[in-house]
Specification:
39% of the residues lie in helices and 23% in strands. Helix 3 packs across helix 5. The chain is α/β, with parallel strands linked by helices. It has 10 helices and 10 strands. Bound molecules: adenosine-5'-triphosphate (ATP).
């Protein structure tokens, strides 16, 4: 079993609907892979299968050689897989800093006694968490907003905060679900730089679901295309752009956008 993520013949049925059908693909450590397809093709369902929200009806998912199906989402996070969501999910009543701190909670080693007494070990750990959270916010240009209410930030900043929260769990694989949605062209340009930057800086593998073809074609090393839950093509951005099945299913007009 190889390192990284490996899906083998993964199928999930919802009643009579096969949302994902015998899907196989892999993401090696450090790779930046795109997963694209028309609306309803099954992309978010694939993320939900990888992160333990759904269990496949059949097929296997392995991460670093360990079987994923049957594990709980928090166990999968601990294995080193983090995700963002199509619809932003932040703690709206918490500050920007506290949103990152809560994401780091899983890493805290102190027990209930330390938490209640707030002893030296607890305070040391808290200080470390705050330092790391601020470092991450700084990299994303969000440090000045640390005390702002998360929901008061503009849309692009909220999307970036979601990525910070995912990174705060120290993943080896980051799943990004439509990170460019709702961004303007200059925010999308920044996002492309940011994804490349964090991939290098944190030695991350990234699986990117994204409708914006300029973003996908601009940063992905390889792209898998699904339609009605089935993989119809896989290749480099250049190969995908001229793949007849892809053009027919999906890319025809949007690749020029
Ligand atoms: N829990 C569920 N129960 C029933 N059907 C579901 C469930 N989750 C997803 N589906 C169906 O599976 C199919 C794939 O949905 P999914 O959200 O994965 O597509 P997508 O490629 O992410 O779409 P989009 O690009 O519009 O976000 C759709 O037909 C959807 O209605």
């Amino acid at each position: 079993m190889s390192a990284g993520l490996e899906l083998k013949d993964v199928t999930i049925r919802f009643g009579g609907l096969k949302a994902v059908s015998e899907l196989s693909f892999s993401v090696a450590p450090g790779e930046l892979i795109g997963l694209i397809g028309p609306n309803g093709a099954g992309k978010t369902t694939v993320f939900n299968l990888i992160t333990g929200v759904y269990t496949p009806t059949s097929g296997n998912i392995h991460f670093d050689g360990v079987s994923v199906p049957g594990k709980k989402p928090h166990e999968i996070t601990r294995m080193g897989i983090a995700r963002t969501f199509q619809n932003i999910r932040l703690f709206s009543s918490l500050s920007v800093l506290d949103n990152v701190r809560t994401a780091m909670m899983g890493e805290l080693k102190h027990g209930i006694v330390h938490s209640l007494t707030r002893g030296p070990a607890f305070r040391k750990q808290e200080a470390l968490v705050e330092k790391e959270a601020l470092e991450l916010l700084d990299i994303f240009g969000l440090a000045d907003a640390r005390d702002k209410n998360a929901k008061s930030m503009n849309y692009g900043d909220q999307r970036r905060l979601e990525i910070v929260r995912a990174l705060a769990t120290r993943p080896k694989l980051l799943l990004l679900d439509e990170p460019a949605a709702g961004m303007n062209p200059s925010e999308k340009e920044d996002l492309m730089h940011l994804i490349r930057f964090i991939k290098e800086r944190y030695n991350l593998a990234v699986l990117l679901v994204e409708h914006d073809m300029k973003v996908v074609m601009g940063i992905c090393q390889r792209i898998a295309v699904i339609e009605y839950g089935c993989k119809i093509a896989e290749g480099t951005p250049k190969e995908i752009q001229c793949h007849p099945k892809v053009i027919e299913a999906y890319l025809g007009v949007s690749v020029e956008s």
